Each structure stands twice: as C-alpha cells, then as structure tokens.
Amino acid sequence: MSPEPRAGSGPAEPAPDAGAPPLLSVVIPVRNEAPNIAPLVAEIEAALADVPHEIVYVDDGSTDHTPEALRAARDGGAPVRGLRHRASCGQSAAIITGVKAARGTWIATLDGDGQNDPADIPRLFARARAEAAEGRRTMVAGHRVNRKDSGVKRYSSKMANAIRSRLLRDRTPDTGCGLKVFPRDLFLDLPHFDHMHRFLPALTLRQGGTVVSEPVNHRPRVRGASNYGTLDRLAVSIFDLVGMAWLQRRGRRPVVETDPP
C-alpha cells in the first residue's frame, strides 16, 4: 500500500514555461478504435488550446490499424504519446499504464470511442483545481445525464449504479462515465487491480480524498464497434463488488506525526 499523503495537501503545479511538463495529461485507453483516433485528437486539441497538455493513448492489444492511426496523429503535430500492450489486459490496466507514464500534474481520462465530449474537460479541470485550492484532493467524475446508449445498456448501468451505490456508499451517480479529472498523485496512491476503473470514486474516498460529480455531454458512437459487452460486465460485477466491499472495510488511514525539532 502506498504511503498516506499529507492531509489537505493539493498538487503543486509546474510553472507554465516551455521546459515544464504539461499541466494536464489526457489518458485514453483504446482497443480497435482506429477510425476514432484522428477525430478525437482534433477535438481534444480544440478544447485544450489554452492548457499545456499531452495526450497519452494506451493501445490495449489492438488488432486493427490503431497503431498506425496513433503514429499519424503524432506525425501531424499533435502532442500524442502512444503506449501499447502486446496483448489485451483490460481497460483498468490500460488506464494504470497511461497514468504511470503521464507527465502532467493532473489527469483527465476519456473513453476512446468518441462518446465522451472533450469540450467538457476544461470545466471539470477547473472544478478539480478549485477543489485543490481549498486543500482537497478531489476526483471530479462526469455524470452522463442524457445517455445515448441502447436501452439494454442504460438499464443495466442504472441497476449496477444503484446496487454499487447502496453497498459502497460512494455518493457518485455514474461511476461508469469514462470522463474524470483528478490529481495524478491521488491515482498513484490508490490500490491497483483489474476492473478498478469501475470503482475509482469509492477508492478515492477510501484513500481520504473527495469526489464530486459534474453533468457532461454524452454522444452516440458513430464509428467502430464497442469492445466491452454488457453481459461481460454483469458477469464480473458481483465478484468485483464483493471484493471492493472487502477492501473498503480493511482500509486504515494513519495520521502521521513527525518528531518535534
């Protein structure tokens, strides 16, 4: 378990000079999303034109032309960094790889299918920085208030959110939204395991952080096909919830004191 951070400490932000690392790293896990790379990169660049940033794609074992699309985006001048899992390890593993490799003080995560709207990132980023200015380590989670998914997917998600909220008390209406903004050091303090991305708010609370939700736009998928099946998610959700509840009950946050001078 990583050491507990100092209470009330916000992340220190680098000075905005040419040699400084980016302020914000946008981490995007993808698998077989070649048609969505260029349009999404263009939208991110437009949304973050005034923010020093980088875009960290993690290709989770794609078998299509995703690697070529990422190289084309980088060669076109966008601040894109590409990492690749030789074989698919899952969405959580891709996010962990991306955040560990990120150079920014802040992280924004985004689904790679184009359904999250990059135009929402600046608002969530501003909320996260305002929380830090008040001494809080906060994860800002997107809340898709008008989802553009199939009826089956919306219903299963609604049920899963209700059950999860009742068991874990994470006070988050939509943990499945891929759009989140948080300090990088907060994420690195969390326990890392398969499917952890479903429980980031609960893990943040367990670590002594805070979680707030912001309404965000949600769009229909217009290119490619989903790589995550509804039944697959439901099959593992019960076991994940039991494991997460066990983890919550065994979390302790020591108050660390230094010896007097």
From TrEMBL:
Biased composition range(s): Low complexity: 7-20
Top-level taxon of the source organism: Bacteria
SUPFAM superfamilies: Nucleotide-diphospho-sugar transferases (SSF53448)
This protein's name: Dolichol-phosphate mannosyltransferase
Stored InterPro entries: Glyco_trans_2-like, Glycosyltransferase_2, Nucleotide-diphossugar_trans
Region feature Disordered, mapped onto this chain: 1-20
Keyword Membrane assigned: yes
Residue ranges of domain Glycosyltransferase 2-like in the record: 25-187
Molecular function, one GO term: glycosyltransferase activity
One Pfam family hit: Glycos_transf_2
Keywords annotated in UniProt: Cell membrane, Glycosyltransferase, Lipopolysaccharide biosynthesis, Membrane, Transferase, Transmembrane, Transmembrane helix
